[in-house]
Amino acid sequence: MRAFTRLTAVAAALPEADIDTDRIIPARFVDRRPQDGLADCLFHDERFDGAGQERADFALNRPAWRDAGILVAGANFGCGSSREHAIFALLDYGIRAVLSPGASEIFANNAFENGLLMVTLPPDTVARLLTLLQARPGHRLTVDLERQVVADSDGTEAPFAIDPRRRRCLLEGLDTLSLTLRMTDRIAAFEARHPG
């Protein structure tokens, strides 16, 4: 897993609430291996028409947001079925962080396990960011995990909370297996104290 410390990137606005995993990646693409690439599947049915042509009105097809690394989304992002491919599609597209008033718990857990930072911000902060991004397409934000703030180029900062273990894992690029392997001495000591 790639470490996440600080990201400054174009932020795209997806203001709608309840964007579910079937919209993020339609079910017909979940048999594809993530190693084969899933960027073209991301929001497929909203990004492309029936003939495979881009829909100009979809956010990520706008020239200013085409290379977004951050999404600012409405509440309950990633709801619906537990579909890890949704995280893989976001990461493969280049999205490293999603800022919203809240995300599906299962989606947020899957995101963390795969290096996608989910940042929960107050609804008024998200509304302010969405208004800013819609007025200034191509605007860049900074997500600083070390300091736990989202910063705007004008100096405005919004703090966010994150579980300390998750923060450490993301900062160091550790998935659950890597973290467990770092603790083999402690695991062996525990097993020695508790035989059988």
The coarse overall form would be globular
Task: Kindly estimate the percentage of residues that lie in beta strands according to DSSP.
Answer: 15-25%
Largest sheet: 7 strands, mixed
Strand element count? 7
Structural class: alpha/beta
Name of the CATH first level: Alpha Beta
CATH superfamily assignment? Aconitase, domain 4
Give, in order, the helices and strands. Answer: EHHEHEHEHEEEHHH
Radius of gyration: 18 Å
Helix count, per DSSP? 8
Through-space gap between termini: 34 Å
What's the short version?
With 196 residues, this protein is of the alpha/beta class.
Task: Describe the structure using short key phrases.
alpha/beta; Aconitase, domain 4; seven-stranded mixed sheet; 17% strand
Would you write up a description of this structure?
With 196 residues, the chain is of the alpha/beta class. The protein has one domain (6-193): Aconitase, domain 4, CATH 3.20.19.10. Helices cover 34% and strands 17% of the residues. The chain has 8 helices and 7 strands, in the order βααβαβαβαβββααα. The protein has helices spanning 21-24, 44-47, 84-93, 105-114, 123-135, 164-172, 176-182, 184-193; strands at residues 6-14, 70-73, 97-100, 117-120, 140-144, 149-152, 157-159. The protein has a 7-stranded mixed sheet with strand order 4-3-2-1-5-6-7. Helix 3 (84-93) links the parallel strand 2 and strand 3 (97-100). The longest helix is centred in the middle third of the chain and has 13 residues, at 123-135. The mean pLDDT is 94.
